[in-house]
Write a structure and sequence with these properties.
The chain is α+β, with helices and mostly antiparallel strands. Helices cover 46% and strands 22% of the residues. It has a domain of 78 residues: S16 Ribosomal Protein, Chain: A, CATH 3.30.1320.10. It starts with a strand and ends with a helix. Pfam families: Ribosomal_S16.
Length: 144
């Protein structure tokens, strides 16, 4: 499988990338088939030399089945060669099945605890009201 990807060049803390056609199994800075552009992130975003592409050559490689990486697809979409949409996978940050089960258990335990507290509180109020009701007739009987 062929990839259109970045190969890093430049010195430490001064990156420079060649956009290359390479086998997917080849290392990042290793063997490649063709150079089809460059990317210099050190230049400002509105600089014309920040990204240079050989669009005709890239279009030929895309027809042959080469797949661009996400970063290169961004560059190619600005030239109209591929369709790239900004977006994240909303499921990526979701907890796994076991974590969701634990959260559901925790929520159920918390709800049971709150229900038990409410029941105990109601029972205590009922118990407090009952002796007061029993004492009132006894007081009336002793007065009479």
């Amino acid at each position: 499988m062929l990839k259109i990807r970045l190969a890093r060049g430049g010195s430490k803390k001064r990156p420079y990338y060649h956009i290359v056609i390479a086998d997917a199994a080849a290392p990042r800075d290793g063997k490649f088939i063709a150079k089809v552009g460059s990317y210099n992130p050190m230049l400002s975003k509105d600089d014309a030399n920040r990204v240079t592409l050989k669009t005709e050559v890239i279009a030929d490689w895309l027809k042959k089945g080469a797949q661009p990486t996400d970063r290169v697809a961004r560059f190619l979409s600005k030239e109209g060669l591929v369709k790239w949409e900004h977006g994240n996978n909303p499921q990526k940050g979701m907890p796994g099945k076991k974590a969701q089960e634990r959260a559901a258990e925790r929520a159920q335990r918390e709800q049971d605890r709150l229900d038990a507290e409410a029941a105990a509180k109601a029972e205590a109020e009922a118990a407090a009201a009952a002796p007061a009701a029993e004492e009132a007739p006894a007081e009336e009987a002793s007065e009479g």
